[in-house]
Amino acid sequence: MRRIPMQDLIDFGERLLIAKGVARADARYLAEIAVEAEAFGVTTHGLVQLASLAGQIGKSIDPAREPRVVRDVGASALIDGEGVIGQLAVRLGKQLAADKARQYGIAMIAVRRTSWIAALGIYLISLARDGFAAQVWAQSSQCQDSAPIGGIDARLSTNPIALAFPTDGDPVVADFSTSAISMGAVSRMVKAGRRAEHPTFMDNQGRLSDDPGVVRPDGSILLMGGEQSGHKGYALSLWCEAMTALAGGVCNNPDEPQAQSFSLTVIDPDVFAGREHFAQEMKRFVGWLLSSRLRPGASEIRLPGQRGFRLLRQARKEGVPVDDAALDQLNRLAADNGVDAVTV
Question: How would you classify residue 140: left for phi > 0, otherwise alpha for psi between -120 and 50, otherwise beta?
Fold first, then answer.
């Protein structure tokens, strides 16, 4: 594991995406998002996403295509993301949502049929720092990762959710799948030869397992809540699908091309009890949470996102930890696209 300065990784990502035909300003933004996710500890959706994007450009993604607003009504808007870089659709959605939330108090932006947008929580940090509360519900149209309750065959993707709101310190940022774990985490477990601590998967005969290897080709990941309480993750996952249909996207359907659809809701506390009350009450409440006695073996009480912000601050000082396999992949991309490699 090596630590590479964040700026070096961002500069590399920018060079790579420019070589793939992405406009310079967009390439910079995309590289910053990917590297920040990596530094935040979301390694399944950071540099991996950058490499994936570079591979898709020119195939399923047109680097010159822009997301398009197809409907704009009051506090809502619909964006068509077909064929565009998903992160650019998110950027447009955030801009619209923040402007509309300032005007109307609450805004909802839906984006249909775009490419993989990777880690959701990273996008919400700036909104929370600006004083908004925000949530994202996302879905993938073709991924078959989790079975419906009572079923064996996977019919849902891992359908992630992210939530964020400001506090007196770092924002609270929660980013999680409606399945027990993400598919990226499953892949890492398989690669490392690790098993889950308890049955988290189901094989193609409906038998529970702690072995992530049963998920592919035709097993599944249990929904959030597992065998006993998976109906809760099931309901949340179905909401992601409903939001997809609402946006004019495609609910899970292996006969359709892979795409992501998502909805972003942004709320301005000023139109309710006001930002001052919100800030004071959240400060008091967080203090109340942290005053709890520690359970045996625990070293602290953490808020969602707290670990990620610590890692991000450390990465800005000491560099982003990158393993040799990831570094080799980046430098193969550099060689294939005629750009300078990442230096260590």
Answer: beta
pLDDT at 19: 97
Q: Which tens digits make up the pLDDT trace of 148-170?
A: 999 999 999 999 999 999 999 99
Residues 309 and 170 sit within 8 Å (Cβ to Cβ): yes
**Tokens read off for 111:** 């984006």
- Strand 106-114 and strand 76-80: the pairing is parallel
Report yes or no: 193 and 219 within 8 Å, Cβ to Cβ. Answer: no
Condensed to tens digits (0 to 9), the pLDDT of residues 290-316 reads: 999 999 999 999 999 999 999 999 999
| CA distance readout (Å), 118 to 5, 182, 208, 222 | 22, 11, 28, 21
Side-chain half-sphere exposure of 2, counting CA atoms within 13 A: 13
Question: What backbone torsions phi and psi does residue 70 show, to the nearest 5 degrees?
Answer: -105, -15
C-alpha–C-alpha distance, residues 35 and 53, integer Å: 13
Rounded Cα distance between 95 and 97, Å, is: 6
Tell me if 145 sits within 8 A of 179, measured CB to CB: yes
